[in-house]
Specification:
Number of strands: 0
Organism: Pseudotenacibaculum haliotis
Strand content: under 5%
Protein name: DNA-directed RNA polymerase subunit omega
Distance between the termini: 29 Å
Pfam family, one: RNA_pol_Rpb6
Shape: elongated
Largest sheet: none
Order of helices and strands: HHHH
Number of helices: 4
Keywords: DNA-directed RNA polymerase, Transcription
InterPro entries: Pol_omega/Rpo6/RPB6
Length: 106
């Protein structure tokens, strides 16, 4: 998924409790689903960031030398400015883009 084009809030936002629990009728179940989705998003973003930063990796045994790479800094800054995975997960939840099911009720 493309998390870079999300409309999720970058700052703290107060959400309507009724809107969050609307699809499940249970706030705890809704929060659990959102948390699991946020974990998935965080894993995807972390894997993507590590892959991009590995392109800049230089392996040497000298501890005195520190290489600063402007592209590497720009990539890191870009990922720091993205909304948090929890905010992206809540946004997806409120827009009904998260598939969930409860096997106990089926």
């Amino acid at each position: 998924m493309n998390y870079k084009e999300t409309k999720a809030a970058v700052t703290t936002v107060t959400y309507d409790k009724d809107a969050i629990e609307a699809s499940t009728d249970n706030i705890y179940e809704a929060i659990s689903i959102i948390a699991k989705r946020a974990t998935q998003i965080n894993t995807d973003l972390k894997k993507e960031l590590i892959e991009k930063l590995d392109e800049f990796a230089t392996y040497n045994d000298s501890l005195e030398e520190v290489f600063e790479n402007k592209e590497q800094i720009e990539v890191s800054k870009f990922y720091e400015k993205l909304p948090k995975p929890t905010a992206i997960a809540v946004e997806e939840w409120l827009e009904n883009r998260v598939y969930h099911r409860n096997p106990e009720t089926e």
